[in-house]
Amino acid sequence: MPDTILTPVNPAEPVVFTRDMLDWLPWLEPMAVEDLTPRHMKALVDAARAKSAYFRLLARDPDALEARTLTDKDIFYNPDAGAPRAERELAAAAVSRFNGCIYCASVHARFAGTYSKRVDDVQRLLDVGVGADLGERWNAVVAASVALTATPIAFGAAHVERLRGAGLDDLAIADVIQAASFFNWANRLMLSLGEPTAAAG
Amino acid sequence: MTATDADTIDTLVGIAPGSPLDAIRARRPQARTHAEASYRALFAPADPGGVTTLERFAMARFVTGLHGESPTSAFYAARLDGAGASPTLRSAIDAEIAAARTQGPWGSYPRGPLSVENTGGVIHRVADANRAALGARLASAFEHTHMLVFHPRDAAPPSLAAMLAAGWTTTDVVTLSQLVAFLSFQIRVVAGLRTLATTL
Question: In this structure, are residues B199 and A161 in contact, taking their beta carbons and an 8 Å threshold?
């Protein structure tokens, strides 16, 4: 008997990019909470993620999930110099906007707004798209993230020089490269294993 | 550390110990370690489960080939040979890459204000001539993968259902999704850092 897909009923699917909290409905059966072993819990990294259908679905391959999560955390949370957290989140939001991941864009637009205090600029990225004028430094981050996201990859030395001209040092530029690259990983999982829905309540 | 333990991204970027990029990567040590751990989890897993090594490298050759020739695609072409791919399988994958290569990201949004941003493209179907060499499992996975690479926002349950019908389990699909998504990351980190290196 082959496994089967799930077909969620979803009258509250978001139809615009938003900074609102969203939920996510899986198209494949996540692991049941009661089936999570210590190995799966370690792979979730944060125990609270056992509540998330997304992470319980990815927990089916715990080694891949754990390594993914620890890569993610260092790229975004490592406080040792480099790009400010807000700009790493901006790169994530820009990639998500360009690829079309409404769920990922909502999370990282909220973070970008929180860490930069530039909520209006972040909202303009969501509303207008990756061509929005956000000032030269943010425009350089968005342009580099978008060029790296295009297939074939369109990122070149001119993007690096523009980031440098906008004041980013080499570590900060590497942070933008890693943050944008990581969201090409995250977007593809979120977009292809389920769909967003408005948060209950 | 032996040659087989070498960091894959460092190798593909050409990062020498003590170089400026070595120092930059050392500032994000967990990302470096766990990007490599991700590679190992997906390509040299402790328990391969329902996805064979040959299938993993066939997928990787297809994904990286769709991005155009690069050091990363050459790396996975060599790994595919090392995994014992037959000449027939190799040529079928190469033919699929040539037929499927396009530009992205494109795709459609849920009906509403974003519909004006919808962009179209060709939905890839594996050629009849290549189906026997690939087998039903890889053929269904390649069709799903083409969407993930070029038009991920078009993802929907039917292509997952097609993979399940071809014999993959839910857990296999999670592993294959991680594999395609991880490669989308790895190929970009390598391309980005190689570009950064030219400016240092």
Answer: yes
